[in-house]
Amino acid sequence: MMKNNLGIYIHIPFCNKKCDYCDFVSYCTGDEVKARYVDDLLLEVSRYRDLVEKANISTLYFGGGTPSALPPVLLTRLLEGLPPQFFQAEEITFEMNPESVTEEKLCILHDAGINRISLGVQSLCDRTLKILGRAHKVNDVYTAVDKIRTAGFHNLNLDLIYAISEEHPVEDSILLLAEMEPEHVSTYPLEIYSHLPLSEKISLVEDEFFLKEFSNIERVLGNKGYYRYEVSNFSKPGFESKHNVAYWKRVDYLGLGVSAHSLLGSCRHSNVDDLLLYHEALKQGNCPVMKEVMLTKEDEAFEMLMLGLRLTEGVDLFTYHAKYGEFTDAQKRAIERFSRQGFFERSEGRLALTPMGMNMMNTVLVELME
Ligand code: SF4
After folding, report:
1. What is the DSSP string of 201-257?
2. How high is the pLDDT of residue 299?
3. Which of 18, 67, 92, 224 is within CB 3.0–4.6 Å of 62 for a Cys-Cys bond?
């Protein structure tokens, strides 16, 4: 019997230092708490033995937080404790931050079968890294990339933040980053939350500056042979993130760890987002799931549009119509109008946003949802 594809996401909620803009679930804590968490994670994994055995594990992703904040001994304990099927995945990504990349950890990862590293560079300007409250400096990035390549990793993603402020333009960073020739670049506009320290230092940029920053990124990466395959992701051909593409195509995935999210069939669920609650739930033999939502056909149809339109290849309309029927009259009118305005292009049974349409994505989605 043909097995269904399943992506696995493992959340490691630890960081060496909390960045000034960070709103993720992450803790700066000692090795004792980290060790307990690794044991809890392995316990949670064991609860899904049946699901894992029945599936084809297509991708495995260790995200955070900072997975590389685990010390070597815990890294080994985690990797050795996971089911062997996890390591049959075609793409296995491990997120690292420059300050915690070491030869020893890279060797453990490589030996375990990890074949893709995602490095949180964020900027190649020390002044900008400082205002963001990052734990590393520019030199740490170069050292880390050197070590990653030397350790034998041929699929490297570098993360970059843009639209920080007029005093911290992305232009120099993107040029320097492209010169390092990663296979993949993920870009993120800075989000500023009023309860976080960065909001006291800078304020949200104007739309015009935001668009200028992104067009600089697109131009530099385009000149270097990268293509934009998703709203904010670029890669050399063949190096798109398989894990994330599957997510945008609504392939099932199982999220493990504190605050991890899952999509299993028509059910989305998320785990508790508190380390202690996560530990207590597992200790008492309970499931750490905090929230479970059963999606209706309408929810699924909208998700397929909302996520699929993030990809430059767009949405496969044959699949869409086969699963969810025709568009509503309001959707048809919106698609017609946005097509006339140059936001959509339709060809060979696909509906895709043009580059101009991608910049208007939220407006487009609001109308498609009505
Ligand atoms: S490294 Fe990432 S997860 Fe950790 S504090 Fe910084 S932004 Fe948050």
Report:
1. T--PPPHHHHHHHHHHHHHHHHHTT-EEEETTEEESTT-S-HHHHHHHTT--EEEES
2. 95
3. 67
Of the residues 11, 14, 15, 191, which should be mutated to test ligand 1's pocket, given the most ligand atoms within 8 Å of the CB?
A: 15
Nearest residue (CA) to ligand 1, atom 8: 22
Ligand 1 centroid to Cα of residue 217, in Å, is 22
| Closest C-alpha among 112, 18, 52 to residue 262 | 52
The band of 204, judged by pLDDT with boundaries at 50, 70 and 90, is confident
Is residue 318 predicted with pLDDT exceeding 80?
yes
pLDDT at residue 1 tops 80: no
Provide the ipTM.
0.99
d(CA 187, CA 183): 14
Evaluate whether 77 touches 38 at the Cβ level (below 8 Å).
yes
Q: Which atom of ligand 1 is found nearest the CA of 26?
A: 3
Q: Does residue 127 carry a pLDDT above 80?
A: yes
Cα 218 to chain centroid, rounded = 19
> 95 with 63: CB under 8 angstroms?
yes
Contact in structure between 138 and 114 (CB atoms under 8 Å): no
Mean pLDDT score of the chain = 96
Residue 370 has pLDDT above 90, yes or no: no
Expressed in angstroms and rounded, the spacing between residue 15 Cα and the centre of ligand 1 is: 6
Tell me what pLDDT residue 369 has.
81
Ligand 1 centroid – CA 197 distance (Å): 13
Q: Scanning the structure block, which residue is given the tokens 């904040």?
A: 69
Q: Are 155 and 183 in contact (CB under 8 A)?
A: yes
Ligand 1 site: residues with CB under 6 angstroms? 15, 18-19, 22, 24, 26, 64-66, 97, 120
* Atom 7 of ligand 1: nearest residue by CA position: 22
Domains of the chain: 4-248 (3.20.20.70), 297-369 (1.10.10.920)
